[in-house]
């Protein structure tokens, strides 16, 4: 209850602070550059000056926040990656050389590649299929709401839910895990699913796919509704069946949105941490880069150098995809 009160208090203070800042800063700007003067020329100059300053009043807090919480940590992480465990002695590229020969780091890279191949593809595919199907039924909006609902759950909360799905009890005991209950019902033996090497990675991926399918569905549904009806009608007149219309008419026209959804989920996958931490803590060959970074940075006394070097690797992998995503979005906006 106390945490809930703190959260509500934080929200109230944050909203009140934002309103107070924007109201107060605009009031101060109008006092500095008054627009209602007897001198018309001076009033015009003040209006122009205020117009130049006013956008920065809105951008200012965001720029300061990004500088403190994004730009500074980037340079700080790069600097720390060149120092030793305590962050005091310069070791150059020693931490990066260590990564090349560390088996756990190579396992993390392999697992991250699996996540990158499976999760964006599955989430985008399921989102596209659901978006297309729900647009054809009268209760489609209800279905979309239910499918989008997991987006409101934190990754840790979703992991707790899926822990019950994968739960294991000894053979002969009543299985409360849905998956083992189904296996036992068909005469099989219950399994500790999240401890099965290699396959357990896919069981963890299902959680993120379950969460992100709703995100993909919403964007792709909006894109499908934006397709001109004339193109679909022309395809129907030419004798195209529904499958051909979907694959050869609709999908090509929303390919830009599909790419944005795909790359957005890809960026999220590169930073995946909560699910692995909550489900396996990187055990049983499920380690990923973000969780490995956390282990080196904050556990066992902490190794700032190696933890920071892993963070830099994650950043290097994410930045090109972000740049491509932004350029693609701008290209689409210019096309419109």
From TrEMBL:
Cell location: Cell membrane
Transmembrane feature ranges: 6-33, 53-72, 113-134, 146-166, 178-196, 202-224, 254-284, 304-326
Source taxon at top rank: Bacteria
Boundaries of every ABC transmembrane type-1 domain copy: 109-325
Membrane topology type: Multi-pass membrane protein
Keyword terms of this UniProt record: Cell membrane, Membrane, Transmembrane, Transmembrane helix, Transport
Family: Belongs to the binding-protein-dependent transport system permease family.
Protein name: Sugar ABC transporter permease
Organism: Ciceribacter sichuanensis
């Amino acid at each position: 209850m106390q945490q809930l009160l703190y959260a509500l208090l934080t929200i109230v203070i944050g909203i009140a602070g934002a309103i107070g800042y924007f109201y107060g800063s605009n009031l101060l700007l109008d006092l500095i550059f008054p627009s209602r003067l007897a001198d018309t020329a001076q009033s015009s100059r003040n209006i122009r000056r205020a117009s130049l300053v006013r956008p920065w009043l809105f951008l200012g807090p965001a720029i300061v926040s990004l500088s403190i919480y994004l730009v500074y940590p980037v340079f700080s992480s790069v600097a720390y990656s060149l120092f030793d465990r305590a962050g005091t002695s310069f070791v150059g590229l020693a931490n990066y050389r260590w990564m090349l020969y560390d088996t756990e780091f190579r396992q993390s890279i392999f697992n991250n590649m699996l996540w990158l191949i499976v999760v964006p593809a599955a989430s985008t595919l399921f989102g596209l299929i659901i978006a297309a199907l729900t647009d054809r039924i009268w209760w489609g909006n209800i279905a979309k709401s239910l499918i989008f609902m997991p987006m409101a759950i934190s990754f840790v909360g979703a992991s707790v839910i899926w822990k019950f799905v994968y739960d294991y009890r000894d053979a002969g005991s009543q299985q409360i895990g849905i998956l083992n209950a189904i296996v036992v019902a068909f005469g099989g033996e219950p399994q500790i699913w999240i401890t099965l090497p290699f396959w357990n990675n896919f069981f963890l991926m299902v959680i993120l796919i379950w969460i992100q399918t709703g995100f993909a569905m919403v964007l792709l549904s909006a894109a499908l509704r934006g397709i001109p009806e004339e193109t679909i009608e022309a395809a129907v007149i030419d004798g195209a069946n529904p499958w051909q219309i979907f694959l050869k008419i609709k999908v090509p026209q929303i390919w830009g949105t599909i790419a944005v959804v795909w790359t957005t989920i890809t960026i999220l996958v590169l930073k995946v941490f909560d699910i692995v931490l909550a489900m396996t803590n990187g055990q049983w060959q499920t380690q990923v880069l973000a969780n490995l970074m956390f282990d080196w940075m904050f556990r066992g006394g902490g190794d700032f150098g190696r933890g920071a070097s892993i963070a830099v690797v994650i950043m290097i992998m994410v930045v090109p995809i972000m740049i491509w995503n932004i350029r693609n979005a701008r290209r689409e906006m210019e096309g419109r």
